[in-house]
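Worked Example 4.2. Read the sequence first, then its structure tokens.
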Amino acid sequence: MQQRGFRNAVAGALGAAAVLASLSAAAHHSFAMYDGQKTYVFTGVVTRVSPDPSHLTIFFSPLNDARTAVIRDAAGKPVIWSVELRSASQVALEGVTAQNFPPGTIFSIGLHPLRSGLTGGGRGKSGLFKCPPNTPPAAGKHCDSVAGATSHGESGSLPMPTGTWSP
């Protein structure tokens, strides 16, 4: 009888541990920090890529609408945005790696901005397009309109923006 009680206690503890582990995983993958009601589409220049195992992050300076220069803040420094993608191993299958997106790469992506108002966001299911080297898109356009651009991602298209960002 005591043995059965011990087994039940062990089974209960293992079950509780499994539930806690699944809640932890779900919390880690929550997108609550992003405003899913807003979608911005940026064309920018990569400043660096952080290939963290849990989420690859691309840091970039957005280009102006004329696509001739990066946007700068009031002090004259380039504005830096970040966009979080899925795990480095998952996006590597799409060709998104630090080696394939070195600093200076021009690319376009849609993102859901951080609710906090900081310059960052999550990719969601947006397409990602890389312009050919040293070939920005025409004024007001994105890399998906440039001959020779490459598509990296599951959706294959940029989303329709629901808003715009300005410094």
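Now turn to a second chain, presented in exactly the same format:
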Amino acid sequence: MSTPLKDKKPISRYSRWYHQRSSSLAWLLNFITLNLFVFWIVGLPYFSFFQLPPAKLLTHAGILLTRFYFVISYLGQLAILALLPLSLFLTPFVIGFPKRGKLLRLLAATLAASLVGLLIIDMSLYRLYHFHFNGIVLHFILGGG
């Protein structure tokens, strides 16, 4: 009669590698998803800048398509701004240092707060100058004119 411990297959190298990182990757996925919703909420003032062309130029279907396009663009652009930096900078950290959970959370919170801060600055700049944050605006801010 065999015991349950003898019937177990040895853990493969890939299985052990994945198991060490799975909880950190799951936390990172949840964190990025939460930040996606934060970006969508913080970015809501962008809707106040949206203006339709004169009604004479568009049909009702054209107005509906324009609004639909704006909503899809809004969701997609802010999703890219939230997902790309967080996933590009934090996923290699999780893969390289699986046992550093506290440091991962610190880096993730710092990066997410910085990104939300940049989004708020971009909205303020757009409200003032009708330009998004770019090199010309950065030169204007740092160079003084």
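Notes for the reader: Residues 14 and 113 are 34 Å apart (CA to CA). The mean pLDDT is 82.
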